[in-house]
Structures are given as structure tokens and as C-alpha cells.
Amino acid sequence: MTGNAFDRDLDRNPANFQPLTPLVLLERAAKVFPNEVAIIHGGQRVTYATFWERSLKLASALVRYGIGKGDTVSVMLSNTPPMLEAHHGVPMTNAVLHSLNTRLDAAIIAFQLDHAESRVVIVDREFSDVMKEALALAQVKPLVIDYDDPEFGEDAPYPKGERIGSVDYEAFVASGDAGFTWSMPDDEWDAIALNYTSGTTGNPKGVVYHHRGAALMAYANTVHAGLSRGAVYLWTLPMFHCNGWCFPWTLALTAGTHVCLRWVRAKPMYDAIAEHGVTHLCGAPVVMSALLNAPEAEKRDFSHTVTFNTAAAPPPESVLSAMAEAGFTVTHLYGLTETYGPAVVNEWKGEWDALDGAGQAARKARQGVRYAALEGLTVMDPETMTETPPDGETIGEVMFRGNIVMKGYLKNRKATDEAFAGGWFHSGDLGVMHPDGYIQLKDRSKDIIISGGENISSIEVEDALYRHPAIAACGVVAKADEKWGETPVAFVELKPGRDASAEEIIAHCRSLLAHFKCPKTVVFSEIPKTSTGKIQKFRLREQARELS
Hints:
There is one protein chain. By secondary structure, the chain is α/β, with parallel strands linked by helices. The chain folds into three domains: about 45-210, Rossmann fold (3-Layer(aba) Sandwich), CATH 3.40.50.12780; about 265-445, Rossmann fold; about 450-545, GMP Synthetase, Chain A, domain 3, CATH 3.30.300.30. It has a nine-stranded mixed β-sheet. Strands 7-6-5-3-4-8-9-20 form an eight-stranded mixed β-sheet. Helix 1 (about 25-30) packs across helix 2 (about 50-65) and helix 2 (about 50-65) packs across helix 3 (about 80-90). The longest helix has 18 residues, at about 50-65. It is globular and about 70 Å long.
């Protein structure tokens, strides 16, 4: 006889091996906690039993239309119940969910619809005008389904557009069968979602997620966000962004409650926290700013502590202190679209509480260590593919390896091969590895400023700027210079009612940094941001070129 005894006559079979998928989590929650509230949306309360039933009916209706494996269903939706239903109903058919950024222009939407070969488009009436324009530009001719949000009132900050579809979402769901037998993926490697990167040049790349990664992210999110039974999650993070970091699938694991938020505004956020007992939310620093800078009349008292997960640049110490005083504890995360959202967490250690303010700030500025669901995280020289020394100083490229890294880029073998060269995912982010294994970003490779042969990290300069009490937002990019090649220019957005001069800001930076790293020019303006709150460096670079 040959072979290992532990392999002989111990084959995989349906009884002992099933493909990993997050869809079974909602099925379990509906059976175990059928009467628990799964979704709150304005005056609506949706139980887990109803959430599951509506997802089944959506899947059934899609299958009747002919949707199945390999098909793409695109959605242009706010953080509303249909978006949660789509995250389950679409993959129940073995199709792929494509969530569109609701702030895109018609040309980019049309490109994505064509590249994804969309068969169905579900569109909220808030976005019907731009979608109508996009569909006129696109080559594909999908079934268009209108969603008319009943919580979209007359006092809405945006107008409700016309109906552009051939069927209403509620009518479409109602046509489905609640007894529909949904399909597990044939393989956990099957695609579950498609997300396009917010590329700044040319057309964006389509990032493909698989069922295995989405399932593992649900477990990892539960651990790293500290989700317990009865958690209440407020949707301040767009669900179109990396599938809401996979939280649409995650909450079912502990039968938590989704609190939908159509528009991110301070008053409804405070109202939700106070009235629904929100325990967790995610978002960019702009969401923190909205909470902290809200008029006193819009703020509400609450007795519990709320966990705020943020994955942009580390908040300055003043913001962290203000958030703590307001009742929030901030967890710093890091990741990319290609890693299903956050795959790195700043795991805080108890002994760091004894450090002084500067010591704690230095620890909080680091991105952290790998998620439990990620197998490898390192910093390497991308040319030699050797690890940089863990000295906190030697800069290399941050690289990922594991089951929560994308399948690859849709219809783009060249970009996929480049991203996975050497058996690691190349993030394009530059960073260092500290002796204790925590990584810290220093810049995007394209954002490093080379002045007089010296590398300047724009992140390091921005960190110094954020310590100035008058600065609300800032971005640092390179400006061409005849003598030095490049010098840093700082774009600064001041807090309402605060003043500061360019000379004052430069002097502030010089008190914290080597003089060659400090901005030579300061421009006061509103900082351009993406829909998820990230600063658009490419637009700042364009403005900097005009200064040269």
C-alpha cells in the first residue's frame, strides 16, 4: 500500500467538506433568531426571517430572468435595505454582485457596465439621471430595476429622479418565490463580487472577490471589530466601497442589527447612536470630523462607548482625544480594495497605556499587524523580493499574501500578473517594519517626494501638519523645483472659524521635522476627497503643476 495513512480512505465528501461562503451565515441567523431585528431603515424594521425571505425572493426573481453563474448584477444603491438584500440574493444565484460608486460620472459608469457585461442594473431613483446617461453611452442593454426608497422624504438633501427602469424593485422581489432553493457556490473560489478601483489615470481595474475570502472576512471582522451578540452597526461607510468591508455579510454571524443611513450627516448619526444603541461604525476621518464639529443642538448624549473603525491616515492625537471624550474608541485599520478592505489592524497592547502622549501617538500612527484571516504581511524590496530589516527605518513595499487577497483583475491578465509577481500581492504602498512586527506606511510609491536626492514621505509631513490646531484637512505633494528637483507643497483646509498664515504653518512644521522635509509653499483651499473620504492626491498634483 502506498500513501500516508491519514490520506487513505479519508476523501472529501458532501458530509465533511462544503465550500466556504458567507451566505450560510444569514441562513443560520434567520433560523436561530427569526424575530430579531436585522435591519432598521427610518421607520422600517426588518427581522432576520424577513431579510432571509426577501433575499430568497430576489434570487428567485433573478433566476427567472435568466441570471446564473458568470452573470453580473450591477447595483447603484445607497446604504438601504435593497443593498443588503443584493449582497445575499445575487450570489445565491451564483451570479456576481457589482456595486457601483454612487458618485461616479456617466462615462465611468458606462465603462464599468460594459467591462462587467452587466445583465441587470438596480438603481436608486436618487441616481437615475446619471444612470440614464450612462446607459445611453453603454453597449450593454441590461434589465433596469428602479428602487423607490419610501424613506426618501420631501426634506431630502437631493432630488428624486425619474423612473428609468421597466420594473419596480418591490414588484420584482414580490414576483420571486420565498421557497426558492438557493445555490451554494460550486467552488469557494467562485466569484462573489466585483469592485472597481478608483484609478486616477485611464480606466479603473475590476477587482474580483471569491466566496472563501468573503466568508473569512466575516469571521475576521467579528473578531477584530469586537462584534458580540446584539451588536448594532451604523452604516456610515458606503456599502459600495469594498462591499462595505464585507460587513453586509458579517453582521449575520452574531445576529447583529444593520442601521441604514442614506446620507451621512451628524444629526442622524447621533440620533441613531442614542435611539438604537449603535455599538459600531466605520468610516474615514471626515466622518469623525462631522461628529466632533457638529453643532451642540445636533449632538445627543449616550451612556455606552461606540467603536469607530477607521482605515485612512491615522488620526492625530487631538482627534483621538476628542473622540474619546465624545464616547468613541477608535480602531485603526489598513487595507486596499484588493484585500477585501481592511486586512491590517493596529492591535493595541495594554502596556502601551502607560506610555506618555507622544509614545502612545507613535504607536497609534502605525497601521499594525495582519488580520487573523491573512496569512502573510511583510515589507520587501520589490526589485529583489527580499524583506527589509525590521528597523522601523528601511522603506520597502508593503506586501500581502493569503485568502483575503483578490482573485485578480477582471479581464486584465497583465495587471494581475504584475500585482502577484513573486507570489505576493504588491500594494504599491511604501512602509517600514518595526522590530515588534508592526508595519507603518510612509507613502504611496507615486507620492514619495525626492528633494535634492533625499526621499520625503508626504505622510510624515501631513502628520506634522495635522498637529496644528487650526488644520482640518491637508495633503502634501511634490512641486517641481529647478534647484532641488522637487519640494513639498502643502494644501491646507482650515477648521471653520480658525485662522493661520502660511508662515505660521511652515514654522510649525519646522518645529517637528527636519527643515528639508517641510513645505516650501502652503496653499489654502478645500481639499478634494473621494466619496469615501480619501484625499485625491492626483488632483492636488495637478494643482501643484500649475504653481510651478
